[in-house]
Specification:
Blueprint lengths: L1 E2 L8 H16 L8 H20 L5 H13 L5 H17 L7 H8 L6 E4 L3 H10 L8 E4 H4 L6 H11 L7 E4 L2 H10 L3 E5 L14 E4 L5 H6 L12
Parallel strand pairs: 1-2, 1-4, 2-3, 4-5, 5-6
Helix pairs in contact: 1-2, 1-4, 2-3, 3-4
Organism: Streptomyces griseofuscus
Pfam family, one: Hydrolase
Keywords: Hydrolase, Magnesium
């Protein structure tokens, strides 16, 4: 099993919105926006746009963070100022971290029958810290991220790297993620069993001629995996 993190295991959308709301209050910035939801929506839109630049290799990880701040505030800032603002936001964001309620029961249900790894379009520094804080890190044999791999989802190389880390062929690996294109279609085209967890955080799209299994809750996953006996390599955890 290979897992995405944000909005799959970790409730990123809720934490991001709660964290930014608290940050806007602390920074005295609510007065700039008639409705708080407008500010939150703008932050998410800017985040998505800057992250797309990073995923495409157009900028570095730290650069996309700084540009998110500069665009959101619509002001010139040097790197140190942008970093400081972002770190203050991170403090509020991390205070709101949590996993979805279906995560731990599902991981427990699959702990003996399946091996587990993470594949994320973030960086290992970010995701290992997050998984450790959430009490999940020890459940995964490997954590692979685009920043270190040099290739990001939905490119096949990212998924194949995760399979290699587990020592399994793509057809022996299932991938679970929240985005129908980046996760769902990407995993399917790389030859993995592709499972899209539809938590309502990404727009529904036609995956075309590739097979993507859509579930609404992770509790549906064990039955889906049992339906195909190719999956379920024994766990390496005693």
């Amino acid at each position: 099993m290979v897992w995405d993190v944000d909005d799959t295991l970790f409730d990123y959308t809720s934490a991001d919105r709660s964290g930014m709301r608290a940050h806007l209050v602390a920074e005295g910035l609510l007065g700039r926006h008639e409705v708080v939801e407008d500010a939150l929506g703008r932050w998410r839109e800017i985040t998505d746009r800057q992250w797309a630049r990073y995923a495409a290799g157009e900028c570095g990880f730290q650069e996309q963070r700084r540009d998110r701040v500069r665009v959101f505030l619509d002001t010139e800032m040097d790197d140190a100022e942008a970093d400081a603002w972002f770190q203050r936001y991170m403090a509020h964001y991390e205070a709101a971290w949590g996993v979805f309620p279906d995560v731990l029961p599902t991981l427990e249900a699959l702990a003996v029958t399946h091996r587990h790894a993470v594949l994320s379009n973030s960086s290992i520094t970010v995701q290992e810290h997050k998984l450790r804080a959430l009490g999940l890190l020890d459940r995964f044999e490997a954590v692979l991220c685009a920043a270190e791999l040099g290739v990001s989802k939905p490119r096949p190389g990212a998924f194949l790297a995760a399979c290699e880390a587990l020592g399994l062929a793509p057809h022996e690996v299932a991938y679970v993620g929240d985005h129908p294109e980046i996760d769902g279609r990407g995993a399917a085209e790389a030859g993995l069993l592709s499972v899209w967890i539809d938590r309502g955080t990404a727009p529904a799209r036609d995956a075309g001629d590739v097979v993507v299994h859509r579930i609404a809750c992770l509790s549906e996953l064990p039955a889906l995996l049992r339906s195909d006996t190719r999956f379920g390599a024994p766990s390496t955890f005693g």
